[in-house]
Amino acid sequence: MARYASRHPSYLPENFYNLKADLPELPPPPLNPATREPLRPEELEPVFPRGFIQQEITRQKFVPIPDEVLEVYSRFRPTPLIQASALRKYLDTPARIFYKYEGVGPTGSHKTNTALMQAYLARQEGVETLTTETGAGQWGSALAYACSQCGLKARVFMVRSSYRQKPGRRILIQLFGGEVLESPGPATAAGRRFYQENPDHPGSLGMAISEAVEAAVSQPGTKYSLGSVLDAVLLHQSVIGLEAIKQCQELGIEPEIIIGCVGGGSNFAGLSFPFIGQNLTVKNGIKFLAVEPEACPSLTRGQLQYEHGDTAGLTPLLFMHNLGRDFVPPPIHAGGLRYHGMAPLVSHLVRMGLVEARAYPQKQVFTAAEIFFKTEGLLPAPESAHAVAAAIEEALEAKKTNRPVNILFNLSGHGFFDINAYDPKNGNA
Ligand SMILES: *Cc1c(COP(=O)(O)O)cnc(C)c1O
């Protein structure tokens, strides 16, 4: 049995897959916070490029990927699908474990997939600057890369706790020519509210989103870009699962458990939605598992109700599992999972019983990452390590029942810039 699926160019899809086209029922729509009426697409125009809004609302099943974006994807996609045979041997399990490795892209995570598409759509309309927020910096660096490819400026509000803990990706953003601001900070009214109370405020993704949205709507030629949560972002990430379907066919395997970590839900959706779409027509009996940190348990402990996407309440109301927009998660290392909400589509699938949610403590996650590193030789991002932990748990479960189940998880990014989090002297593992 081959350890790797090939990375044949024909595996790179020419269209994104839109799960909304196949769902029998859609989640409740976003609301205008002032009127609590369903949001009209035009109301988003001050914030997002029109092309992006179009992709947010479309129910078209296949959305073409522009040639220019395909050309850039083809530099690092299809990403590898690898059998974790050393991990399997270490765990002494009958389960076969596979992972889709998104860390091979330019900035080391799946976020580049949507960043390139969003920068392309913005440039189509003559936008000059994209603003955004970032936690650990994966999204900020992906967008800064995409902007530099498209000749746009990137202005990134970086959550202060990450800015100070993790200089690596801040430096990447700056090397790509992007501007980085510590959030919350004095540049916006939303930031000043918290900054004046406490200039060392650790910040949160919710606060940084408020700042980035305000900075976009208040400047001409400037739009805002979001790296997760929205339907269009999940749509762009479908390239992961579309490739994986072909790669699994090549290896002759049918995954039975599909796992992704969840912050806003995009890498999980990217891998799982194309398989979920198949499951809706021909029942494939796959178990879909979304894994989050116990410290920020929006799916397992949050309420499914309307909430703003940001802390200041500038964004539309989204119907999603959330912990309340004022929730400030503790500064855990998986900065990309410190978000109070969850993609409405992922929330919806959990409610429909199509996706199962699970939460893990940081210690278990770091232990899993260390085992994966020692066996497979790749250092997972602390976010991705949540998926590793679930894959290990499922593989050990299969050992108890002696079932040779096929497990596929998304290794959404590498953790080389998070190396301090893995320092034994920090006592995480
Ligand atoms: C941002 C990020 C996540 C979390 O975001 P999702 O939208 O839930 O995918 C997970 N893994 C990595 C490597 C990330 O950069």
Short summary:
With 429 residues, this protein is an alpha/beta fold.
Features:
alpha/beta; 429 residues; binds pyridoxal-5'-phosphate; four-stranded parallel beta sheet; globular; 15 helices
Description:
The chain is an alpha/beta fold. The protein is built from 15 helices and 14 strands. The protein has helices at 50-57, 67-73, 85-91, 112-124, 138-150, 160-165, 167-175, 189-195, 205-217, 231-251, 266-281, 298-301, 344-351, 362-376, 384-401, and strands at residues 15-17, 62-64, 81-83, 96-101, 129-134, 153-159, 179-183, 222-224, 257-261, 287-293, 303-308, 317-322, 356-360, 406-411. The strands form four sheets. The chain has a six-stranded mixed beta sheet, sandwiched between helices. A four-stranded parallel beta sheet has the order 7-6-5-8, sandwiched between helices. It is globular, with a radius of gyration of 20 Å. Pyridoxal-5'-phosphate binds next to helix 5 and helix 11. Residues 109, 111, 138-139, 228, 261-268, 336-337, 381, 383-384, 412-413 line the site of pyridoxal-5'-phosphate.
Q: Secondary-structure map with pairings?
A:
Blueprint: E1 15-17, H1 50-57, E2 62-64, H2 67-73, E3 81-83, H3 85-91, E4 96-101, H4 112-124, E5 129-134, H5 138-150, E6 153-159, H6 160-165, H7 167-175, E7 179-183, H8 189-195, H9 205-217, E8 222-224, H10 231-251, E9 257-261, H11 266-281, E10 287-293, H12 298-301, E11 303-308, E12 317-322, H13 344-351, E13 356-360, H14 362-376, H15 384-401, E14 406-411
Helix pairs in contact: 1-10, 2-4, 3-14, 4-5, 5-7, 10-11, 14-15
Pyridoxal-5'-phosphate binds near residues 139, 261, 264, 268 and 384.
